[in-house]
Amino acid sequence: MLNWSWNRNVPNAAPGSADALPPARVPEPKDLPGKAKLALALGGGAARGWAHIGVLRALEEAGIEVGMIAGTSIGALVGGCYLAGKLDELETFARSLTMRRIAGLLDLTIGGSGLLGGMRLTKRMQEHLEGIAIEDLDRPFVAVATELHSGHEVWIDSGSLITALRASYALPGIFEPVTCNNRTLVDGALVNPVPTSVCRAYEQPLVVAINLNYDIFGRSAVVKHRASFPSEEEPRRRIKDLHLGTPGVMVQAFNIIQERISRARLAGDPPDLALHPRLSDIGMSEFHRAGEAIERGYTETINQIASLERMQEVYAR
User: Fold this and answer.
1) Comparing 222 with 177, which gets the higher pLDDT?
2) Which of the four, 6, 95, 154, 286, has the lowest number of CB atoms within 10 Å?
């Protein structure tokens, strides 16, 4: 039985003779397989969105290049700051937040269209992002927002970066809507919480979604329920439920909307790979837990590095 090797030369064979085998060719750099860049769909999730910082840190550490970012809500904030070269500043800000500092950033409004005006947060962004246009970034970036009057999904891919970020995270009832070119814009998570469809529309070969709401509620269900007759216990139960407060009820309702829409949109337009940091115990308003969220995003990404690298090679062919 012959054990034949293509880089084997027959001993004492004259060069060019029929018995001589050609030497093995060493591949030139241009022949080596390339690696596809990642298009990231950074999902919304309020305070849980600090996990995106950990995701980006892990990708940088592994040398995995990002070719495009589409972001919704806080995903747009983190993605926009990253492409603008301001991720360090954003992480420092996030880790510095305490309950007291968060309260200091809130500018309550009376009679407006949101509980918070958002101008104090805008001023903080202006310190680092003032004058930056989306088209000046070195890679494509899209912030997803929702047009309030029509319900249209709005993709902001040019113009002021600060305005795009504010529009994308303008949670209805909490932040005032943003008026932009005669459109009234609010949080993009109302229509597209994890914007993989945006990356597909930009013809990106390898789309990776970061879904922050995967383990919040679990599988949806339909529950058959019998309506009880009025009793003495019902008022007490209602009072107990109302301890959430109006903002708490609004946030929980938004949690449900965002999670259900995410499942439907991702089922219809799935990413090539999805990352699911475990964040169910971090509330949407717990921005002071940035360190925990960042670490969980980092850990989830590190655990998927081998899969990401393999997919990069496959999609580059």
Assistant:
1) 177
2) 6
